[in-house]
Amino acid sequence: MKTKSLFATLVTATFLSGGAAFAGPEVVSGPGALPECFAPWDEDTSFLQWSAKEGPYKIAVVNGFVGNTWRIQMVKTAKAFAEDPTIKDKISEFKVVSTGTDAPAQLGAIEDFINQGYDAIITIAVAPTGFDRVIRLADKNDVVLVPFDNVLDTDKVMQVNEDQLAMGKKWGEFILGELHEMGIDSGKLLEVRGLAGNSVDRDRSLAINEAIAADGGDWEVVSVVGNWDDGTTQKVVADAIAVHGQFDAVIGQGGSNGIVQALQDSGHPWVPVAGESENGFRKAIAEHSADGLKGISIGQSPGLVAVAMKAAVSALEGNVMPQLISVPLPVATYKGLEDGKNYWSELPDNFFTVNEFPPCDVNISGPAIMAESEEDMK
Length: 378
Fold this sequence. Notes:
Elements (H helix, E strand, L loop, with lengths): L1 H20 L4 E3 L10 E2 L6 E3 L7 E7 L5 H14 L8 E8 L4 H13 L4 E4 L8 H9 L3 E4 L11 E3 L2 H18 L4 E8 L5 H17 L2 E8 L4 H15 L4 E4 L3 H11 L6 E3 L3 H10 L6 E4 L5 H13 L4 E2 L1 E3 L4 E3 L22 E2 L4 E2 L2 H5 L8
Parallel strand pairs: 4-5, 4-6, 6-7, 8-15, 9-10, 9-11, 11-12, 12-13
Antiparallel strand pairs: 1-3, 2-15, 3-14, 13-16, 17-18
Helix pairs in contact: 2-10, 5-6, 7-8
């Protein structure tokens, strides 16, 4: 009898501990915490809840590629926000690493932080798939994994992003609208893509080209890869102009300063340009819009990392959270640019202008960001 009882107890304990270990977050009903900050993506978004942990927390940021100004500013922003009074006391240990474009290296770094006992890991995924193993490991160890920006094709983790499809559509429709106002309904468009192989580049390009296809005009689209980097973009745009001649408009996912510089250096006429939220790009639009640079600037803010960090802490505290958190698109066009408000003449051209999210109490100053380095914190 005692043997049977002990066996039954062991089986029950093993079952319960195994179930708890691999449970991960529970799918629950909404609404979630701070909906003005952590807005659900749409009405079909599910809600997740982790068991509350006592703080302060060990948090790591595992970046991939760090070879452009956006990623560098993102790393600096993460470091600056970790020292912000609104969150500093909730973090006991903070690390940042960049692993490059190699997916196994990034997965290995995430796994290492999980095994070191970190409570939350924020990441920009190198690829939208292939993370199943580390998601299971995170769930087993009760770790909150939060992809942002380049997110994953899964609903098993909490993620933070802006709507990349909406961004691409808005870029495409703006450019076509400007061309139609100029009486142009056919011609050549230059698309400057981002870093190949991730969800942001994929979704933006898909939406841009869907907008062009839906327009009904006779458009030839030339695509080049600029890696969201000013220098790379300047080269590929200059090469495209040399090979294909004049374009009627340019739609760039990033590296927007490089687009402007290539147009200037080649003597290409100013044309409508869609791009990111680089300070230099907005300066150029403000200066040259009357000459034909009818621009739209939509910011995929490096400050998303701060919202992701804040979401991770909220989840660790046991709050109900949307599985996919939507951050509104910050849009500025040539009709509404104002120095000191949505661009700054005294700040560097490669500074990304959108870093404040008032509903989230995330307000990181430019000087605080620029004072940090992009080096790993191991």
